[in-house]
Amino acid sequence: MRVAEPTDRIYFELDRFERGGDHRLSVSGRWYGVRGRRFVRPTLSLRTDQGRWRALADLEHKPWAAEDGQPWRADFLLDEEATNLLEAALAVAPDIEITLPLGDTAELGGGAAEPVGGAAGGVGEAAERERTATPVPATSTRMPARGRSELDRLRDELANARARVERLSAELADVAAERDQATAARDAAVLARAGALQERDAPCQARDRAARERDRAIPERDGAFTERDRAVTERDEAVAARADATSARDELQAALERARADLAETLAQRDQAVGGRERARAERDQAQELLERLRAERDWAQRAATEAAQLRDAALGELDAAHVARDEAIAEREALGKRLAMLQNEHDQLSSAHGAALVMHNSTVARRTELYWVPRLAGVIVVVVVVALIAAVLTHAL
Predict the structure, then answer these.
(1) Contact status, residue 398 vs residue 304, Cβ threshold 8 Å
(2) Does pTM surpass 0.90?
(3) Looking at 169, 194, 212, which one is the last position of a domain?
(4) 350 within some domain
(5) pLDDT, position 31
């Protein structure tokens, strides 16, 4: 795709204008009619949906000098926010600028675009087109040659000024390189002359160097003597320190032996203390067992005392019952005595009737004897029972 007017002497045949990786725009093609022209660092002027800005070519493809019909390439870093391109112009020299076609869409792709007329040519023609060129919409296939705004014109002049500065900087770099070469040649000559002088003065320098080394060796020798004397002194001090260390070692050895003896005695005392502690523990365990046994016996004695008290109370109850029975027997005995007295009176009254009275008397005497021994026998039985109960209670308590 040729980007130029048919009558122009300089034109650019565009092969590829597309977006690459890492937000880059790549422009490649072939230049014609640029023999003897000096290219500066290419500049890409862009108008996007985010505004206008310019990008300098990446240094990867430097230098950008072009030869007629030879492949030429330049890459430009694209702003991440610039998604839709509305206009693009490529400048490679102050008087060489072409407008790059965008195609039917504002998005850049890998396909070829339709050719569009550009502002490339001689110096006068390029300057004239630069003053009269105006931006075109993204959907346009050819940029019109009507009035560009004052701001765009000033920006373009600034870009041209920057391109001139870069061209002058490149020329200045060439001059500096030539100057550096001349300086290097002069320095080489100076070094050669200095080498010749050095070879001429080498024997004198060797003599002076030997004298300096001799003068330097004398203080070193004196220093060596001083170091020797210092070493002898340090050796004597070390011998004395060793003797002191030997004495200290002997004292430490004796202290260690005493400490070992004290440790052995302490261990023996500890063993005795451990044995006494074990015996104390055994005695404590025995005392605890005895205490438990005494507590058990105390509990048993308390239960036995309770039971003895209960038996005592029962015995006292039975004793009270025996006393009541005894009192009843005594009352009955007294009643029988009264009755016996009455019978004695009757016996005295009936003594006249000897036969009948004798029979009655014998029967009365037998009955009185029987009634007299019954209460006594009952009292004896009650006393025996009470004594037996008390003996049983006392035996159980013991």
Answers:
(1) no
(2) no
(3) 169
(4) yes
(5) 92
